[in-house]
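Give me a protein, keeping tokens residue-aligned:
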Amino acid sequence: MLRLTIVYDNEAKTGFTGSWGFAALLETEEETLLFDTGWDGGLLLENLKKLEIDPTNIRKLVLSHQHWDHIGGVPEVLRASPGLTVYAPTSFSKNIKAEIAKRASLIEISESQEIIPGVRSTGELGDKIKEQSLILDSGKGLYVLTGCAHPGLSAIMDSALSFGKVKGIIGGLHDSKEFERLEGLELVAAGHCTTHKEEIKKLFQAEYVEIGAGLRLELE
């Protein structure tokens, strides 16, 4: 089982609340992992409650990059989920890393590494804005989960492709116009900061899925 649930996004499904930022929950047979927190931790916890997800079951938190709309909810998550292990890019500021380390086990990410079975970090990518994405192995192919994709689609996709065939991508794609890197995918789920969402939707009508808080995807 590999289930992905959008728990924070600019847009929201009926019954959920949207707000600028992004967070996604990954559930496997073994573990529950949170990717980013949005900027409002209280709202994130409300959306989790509506999904009947107990935050104490979240054992790992992966942070994509240091922007406020992806890490603003960290303090609330750390309070709600004691004993977390947090995976943050090495490029995070010393002060933020020190604060996280006071309340959780901190693992700094520079190179690609496995987080849990079936879930791997791309490692820190990019120059001006360093960011990690996740590579999800469904057993039948790979999916890429991005925060904002600041390093560019080429860098992210090349990292993922070194581990196998990529079937889909989920998350923020920022202002990327590297649409050719989406060709051949079975799933294109663009949300949050994606500037060219309508253009992507027109180019990949059959593969496109609208992202919003409350969306659940069973990845196969």
